[in-house]
Structures are given as structure tokens and as C-alpha cells.
């Protein structure tokens, strides 16, 4: 909506001179995709940037760093997170558990804070489900074809058996009729 876009583009300024812009407050992603949580901050002094992930499973600290100094990535996100000097982070290979709210806190060295939020929705890839259905359908069709062939063979065998039995009965009946006529 227009209101959320305007709010996202506003530069949220705190009295100490820290500002933060969140150009994309809502991100839709699919499983195994890489996503960029894009922000832009500015402040007068040295800033500390902290990202947290909040979902129904709880709150997890992702990364914290001081511009130009250290980067402290939590063990859960090691190898999956890339930090950028503008405050943005990139998450690699997202999964369903990565859906939720991402909070960024920018703290100026004098203690002034500003906050931003990005909502991330992660969806499963639908064609994998369709692939499973197609394979299951092909398997069921093959089993059905085998069962139909088996039933056809059983039916043919039954007809052959009935023909032999009927032929034997006719031969026996003919013999009995011949025997009766001879005895009389």
C-alpha cells in the first residue's frame, strides 16, 4: 500500500542524528533462495548494527558488528550471512524456518538508537509437489496396467480350462448316451 511504502521510505531520525531507511519492508522468498535484507543507515559517529530474527519459535540474534571493526555472527547463521557496510545483510539458502520478522537496531556510539523491521515470508516450491504427484500417478498407472494384464491372463486361462472341462463332459455324455443305446 502507499502508506507502508511512504513509511518505509521515511528516514527515521533520532535526536542524536541516527537515521535508517528500509526500502523493502516486506520480502517474499522461496526455499533455497538467497535474500537481501536491504537497509541504509547514517549517523555522526561510529555505529553498532544488530540484526535479530523473531518467529513463532522465538528470538535469535543473527549478527552484530561495529562499522569498520568486528563482525560477530551467531553460530546458527555462520556461513549463511553476509554483512554490508550500509547495514544490510544477505541470508543464503533460506528455509521455512527463516520466515518471520527481522529487526535491525542501529546504535550510535553516544547511545542513540533507531530501529527497522523487515517481514520475510518463505514459500515452498510448488513444482516439487507436482513432481511427486506425477511420479505417484505414473506408478499407479503402471501397477494398474500390470493388474489388468494379470486379470486378462487369468480370464483366458479360465476360459481354456472351461473349454477343456466342457469338451470332456461332452465326450463323457456322448459315451453314456452311446452305452445306453447299446444296452437297450
From TrEMBL:
It is found in: Membrane. The chain crosses the membrane at residues 130-154. Keywords: Glycoprotein, Membrane, Signal, Transmembrane, Transmembrane helix. GO terms for cellular component: axon; dendrite; plasma membrane. Residues 24-123 form the Immunoglobulin domain. SMART domains: IG. The keyword Transmembrane helix applies. GO terms for biological process: filopodium assembly; positive regulation of excitatory synapse assembly. Its main location: membrane. Residues 1-20 form the signal peptide. InterPro entries: CD2/SLAM_rcpt (IPR015631), Ig-like_dom_sf (IPR036179), Ig-like_fold (IPR013783), Ig_sub (IPR003599), Ig_V-set (IPR013106). PANTHER family: SIGNALING LYMPHOCYTIC ACTIVATION MOLECULE, V-SET AND TRANSMEMBRANE DOMAIN-CONTAINING PROTEIN 5. This is V-set and transmembrane domain-containing protein 5. It comes from Pterocles gutturalis.
Amino acid at each position: 500500500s502507499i502508506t507502508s511504502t511512504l513509511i518505509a521510505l521515511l528516514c527515521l531520525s533520532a535526536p542524536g542524528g541516527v537515521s535508517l531507511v528500509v526500502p523493502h519492508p516486506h520480502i517474499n522468498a522461496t526455499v533455497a533462495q538467497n535474500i537481501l535484507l536491504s537497509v541504509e543507515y547514517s549517523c555522526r559517529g561510529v555505529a553498532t548494527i544488530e540484526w535479530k530474527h523473531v518467529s513463532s519459535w522465538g528470538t535469535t540474534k543473527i549478527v552484530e558488528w561495529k562499522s569498520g571493526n568486528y563482525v560477530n555472527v551467531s553460530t546458527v547463521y555462520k556461513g549463511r550471512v553476509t554483512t554490508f557496510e550500509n547495514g544490510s545483510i544477505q541470508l543464503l539458502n533460506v528455509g521455512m524456518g527463516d520466515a518471520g520478522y527481522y529487526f535491525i537496531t542501529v546504535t550510535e556510539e553516544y547511545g542513540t538508537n533507531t530501529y527497522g523491521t523487515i517481514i520475510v515470508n518463505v514459500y515452498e516450491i510448488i513444482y516439487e509437489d507436482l513432481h511427486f504427484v506425477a511420479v505417484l500417478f505414473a506408478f499407479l498407472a503402471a501397477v494398474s496396467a500390470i493388474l489388468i494384464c494379470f486379470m486378462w491372463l487369468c480370464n483366458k486361462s479360465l476360459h481354456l480350462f472351461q473349454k477343456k472341462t466342457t469338451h470332456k463332459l461332452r465326450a463323457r455324455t456322448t459315451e453314456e448316451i452311446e452305452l445306453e443305446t447299446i444296452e437297450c
